[in-house]
Amino acid sequence: MDIYLPIAEMSVNSLLIILLGGGVGFLSGMFGVGGGFLTTPLLIFYGIPPAVAVASSATQITGSSVSGALAYLQRGQVDIRMGLVLVAGGVIGAGVGQIIFSALQTVGQVDIVIALIYVIFLSVIGGLMLKDAVGALRAARAGQAAPARRARHLPWVAALPGKMRFARSGLYISPLAPMLLGALVGMLTQIMGIGGGFIMVPAMVYILGMRAQAVVGTSLFQIIFVTAATTLLHATASKTVDIVLALLLLLGGVVGAQLGVRAAQKLSPDRLRLALALIVLGVALRLFIGLTWTPAEPFALFEGA
Amino acid sequence: MARLILPVLLWLALAGAAPVRLITQLSTARIDINTSFRGAELLVFGAIQYPGGAAPGRTPDIAVVVRGPAAPVTVRRRERLAGIWVNGQAVRFESVPGFYAVAATRPVDRLADERMTAIYEIGTRNLQLSPASNADDATTRAFEAGLIAARSRAGLFAERPGGVQITRGVLYSARIALPAAVPVGEYTAEIHLVDRGRVVASTSAPFSIGKSGFERWVYLMAREHSLAYGLAAVVAAVLAGVLAAAVTQRRW
């Protein structure tokens, strides 16, 4: 069924958008990532103006994160204190990101910069995850237990002053470290329309040294707040939130997230990680092709002042 | 008696010299964009009114030009920088119609000479887009061609030779397809009567395209009450998440 989007000013197939939201929501619930890194480029492929795609997918991520975080909260797998510190950093980062986003918009390079940042981040994260997953699967096939991950934070994190106890994460560290991490991710969220989970999740494990069980739920918890702030900033500053598009994405997204949390408890995590790594690398490759192959349209049009 | 005859004679003399007139009507004065909008079709029809009511032996040509609200557009050429295509040199056009379509009884270049089509802006190549840049003429023309090609591919600029039907040399009609991506705003339909390569009569009729009902309400909320709109989006997202969690988890 076709529905006209009032802000994007175009007509879309609603079933396709709901399915897209559902698929991305599923990944979100499973891995603790927002999923915007998939939604935004897929919406742009579909023909939604980039600015609208970025803003509206932030709204969807809020919903699927609430859905997923509640499921993890019931299982006692959310560190709320850690989450709030990350949020505090994230809000500061989002403000800085909005300034950068507006500046790029006036220069007319916003689509290129967004695509370029995507390619770099998606390749690095996808590559790391692929290496991890393949290593773990190979070890499992050889009949060995996967090497236990060293749950320790980096030396500079320990050096920061003013330590605080994060019980569920199993940490006694300065809140400055997660706050800085939150600010960095919040900035990316604002510019790229992503929850930042796919950076946050590895960073929580490798940089902060958080306990693995608490990572996914806490990541989703902080994503709720950061993307809610992102939606508000986009709604007031660039006025590009399409609520009809967001609602369609949400419809699939919140249901997909629930299914994702259940699947994460049942299926082999290494196979899932392998699948996510391949999807992430696929999106990176598609964007890379778009950036480097001779474009079909030699000119780009920018309307208004 | 003489007082009566004089005006009649005067009227007859004037009527004899009176120009051909065009009478026109649009199928609608307002096109509403609602949730199920997938494009629309505008019917432009009317009659050619000849002095004395007698149509000449030969059938003249008609060109129907429909144009939407004009806005500035910046065109950037994609240029390769270290292997990556970036948006390079820019030319700004001050007045680019958001929609432009020509339907005519024959191709634009065979309708009238270049000067005539340029004056009346008949045909996409004859649009006066008001380029504002210090680029040279050839560059500006290349960018203009790029702009027209991009808009044509999007279905927003169109030329349809043979798109006007003339019945018995008097009645004319044209159907103009408006795609789902048409901008909202004030539109005009201009109708030109072309005889032996000269525009002998012109008329125009306005119409508007606007969002209606829910689409309009959402658009206005986003524009004028942006904070409330943003909050509503966040609340909707949170509620949807809570609802999904509650439905799938019995304990909630």
UniProtKB/TrEMBL annotation, chain A:
GO terms for cellular component: plasma membrane. Keywords: Cell membrane, Membrane, Transmembrane, Transmembrane helix. The chain crosses the membrane at residues 12-38, 44-72, 84-104, 110-130, 191-208, 215-237, 243-261, 273-293. InterPro entries: TM_pro_TauE-like, TSUP/Inactive_protease-like. It is a multi-pass membrane protein. It comes from the Bacteria. The keyword Transmembrane helix applies. It holds the Pfam family TauE. It is found in: Cell membrane; Membrane. Belongs to the 4-toluene sulfonate uptake permease (TSUP) (TC 2.A.102) family. PANTHER family: MEMBRANE TRANSPORTER PROTEIN MJ0441-RELATED, MEMBRANE TRANSPORTER PROTEIN YTNM-RELATED. This is Probable membrane transporter protein. It comes from Sandarakinorhabdus cyanobacteriorum.
